[in-house]
Write a structure and sequence with these properties.
With about 375 residues, the chain is mainly β. It contains two helices and 28 strands.
Length: about 375
């Protein structure tokens, strides 16, 4: 049930057509082949992101294979710092006096974005590292000392995330090529609402979530797509008074960019693809109650996880790949998985089909990268 009333007629037609085509294309592909593929992809395994501590969490991969995330440097929870992994993992550091940073996004130009805590009271700051690993703070809506997080960066250097506004609300923002932040638009500009941008495509359009008031004056997060001008569209929910979030948009230039995420249903959470009539639920493998789609590549491969506890895949969860609407546990597709490894969350995928995420081995959380035996072929650009 997209809310298109606030958009000009021309933008409304273009945006609705884009979302409709993406959702219908994926749904039609799944319907044409509802059974598991006779030739699902297979992957080789490698460990990434180890800074010598007890945990590593890869969170994104650029199209040139650069991996970023956050990792502990000791056996204790702190220090935990952002890392970049090219030939090997190295720490990106954090703000002076701080013991925490996290790299959330990376592009092929070597720019990395994320968050770093300040010393003492530990307030979040949106940060960007350049190709020489130099850290700079991205100003929030209330200036350089306002709380903010940078979640994603595109190839142009546009950054998407969230910042505390002057009225105290968490507000979705874009930093155009790392410049001053621009607040993205609201569906209902009401006190108590909040929004967050999770991803940004090559054109500067973003996706994320926004709280929307229901008939009882309660707020529920809805998945939202913002066009390049910052105008929002409600991508809908699976059930009345339910919630949803859009975590990723296909960042390539294929004909049918997909938006994926999660939505509540029957006391659980389902991984979804968003289309013109709202989200379409993807199958959840096994007996898991919750699933989430974290990222999507141009060839329409969707990655994420399934778990018994929402948002906690390291407690017995499973990393998942969806191809044409069919769910596969990535462990079953990884031919050289070392003994003792459990793949529990797939965070990101690039257009060659390389997948990064994390799992557990010997009681510790470790990062991985899976490389397909045959590189995936993206849909041709137009």
């Amino acid at each position: 049930m997209p809310r298109l009333s606030s958009i000009t007629p021309r933008l409304r037609i273009l945006l609705a057509a884009t979302i409709a085509t993406a959702g219908l294309t994926y749904a039609q592909t799944a319907a044409a082949d509802p059974s598991p593929s006779a030739h699902p992809p297979e992957f080789s395994f490698a460990e990434v992101g180890d800074l010598g501590g007890s945990a590593s969490f890869p969170l994104d991969i650029a199209r040139n294979g650069t991996v970023v995330g956050t990792a502990r440097t000791q056996a204790t929870p702190r220090p935990q710092t952002a890392f970049v992994h090219r030939d090997a993992a190295r720490s990106l550091g954090t703000l002076p006096g701080s013991t925490f940073s996290r790299a959330m996004g990376v592009n092929a130009r070597g720019q990395v974005v994320g968050e770093a805590f300040t010393a003492g009271a530990e307030s979040s700051r949106a940060v960007i590292w350049d190709r020489r690993d130099h850290l700079s703070v991205l100003p929030g809506l209330r200036g350089p000392d306002s709380s903010a997080v940078a979640n994603a960066i595109n190839e142009r250097g546009d950054v998407a995330g969230v910042s505390t506004a002057s009225d105290g609300r968490a507000t979705a923002v874009i930093w155009p090529r790392g410049a001053a932040p621009r607040a993205l638009g609201w569906l209902d500009d009401l006190p108590g609402t909040s929004s967050r941008a999770w991803d940004i495509d090559t054109t500067g359009a973003a996706v994320g979530s926004m709280s929307v008031a229901d008939g009882d004056d309660h707020f529920h997060p809805h998945a939202v797509a913002w066009d390049r001008s910052g105008v929002p569209t409600d991508l809908g929910v699976l059930e009345d008074h339910g919630s949803s979030t859009a975590y990723a948009v296909a960042r390539g230039t294929g004909r049918h960019p997909l938006i994926v995420g999660a939505a509540s249903l029957d006391g659980g959470t389902r991984a979804v693809v968003f289309g013109s009539s709202g989200p379409t639920a993807l199958p959840t493998p096994g007996e898991f109650r919750h699933a989430r789609a974290n990222d999507v590549a141009r060839q329409d491969w969707v990655v994420g996880h399934a778990a018994q506890l929402e948002g906690a895949p390291t407690f017995g969860g499973a990393a998942v790949l969806w191809v044409s609407g069919v769910a596969y546990r990535l462990e079953e597709l990884t031919r050289d998985l070392p003994p003792g490894w459990s793949l529990q969350n797939a965070e990101a995928i690039d257009d060659q089909g390389r997948i990064v995420g994390y799992g557990t081995v010997r009681g510790e959380v470790r990062g991985f990268i899976l490389t397909p035996d045959s590189p995936a072929t993206p849909e041709p650009s137009t």
